[in-house]
Design goal:
Layout (H helix, E strand, L loop, with lengths): L3 E9 L6 E10 L4 E7 L18 E3 L5 E5 L6 E8 L4 E4 L4 E2 L7
Antiparallel strand pairs: 1-2, 2-3, 4-5, 5-6, 6-7, 6-8
């Protein structure tokens, strides 16, 4: 994951009070170009506002995998993102995992 920067794009719906991450740009550090954009607009629960909208909504995991915080359940959860080496793309699992829910860990 040393090759990438993560930049969250946030927006606030006209009917809501909170800003949520609508997309995550993955930027190649060497070329300073957008490698990929993950879109969260079709995720049913708000994404990227559990920690703070400034930082900490992306948590690195093992290898080239990471989590994006998601406001599911009572205490929040996350979306899994894994790197597919064959496709050379990050793959977003659109089903959020709730923290503290048996069977989701």
């Amino acid at each position: 994951m040393n090759d990438y920067y993560f930049v969250g794009l946030y927006a606030k719906k006209s009917t809501g009070e909170d800003a949520n991450m609508t997309a995550l740009r993955i930027i190649n550090k060497k070329t300073n170009t957008i490698f990929q954009t993950l879109n969260f607009e079709n995720i049913d629960t708000p994404t990227g506002n559990i920690m703070t909208i400034i930082y900490d909504n992306v948590t690195l995991s093992n290898g080239n995998n990471f989590y994006v915080s998601n406001q599911i359940g009572r205490v929040g959860g996350y979306l899994n993102v894994s790197y597919n080496a064959d496709k050379k793309r990050f793959i977003l699992d659109p089903e959020p995992v709730a923290e503290g829910v048996k069977g989701s860990e």
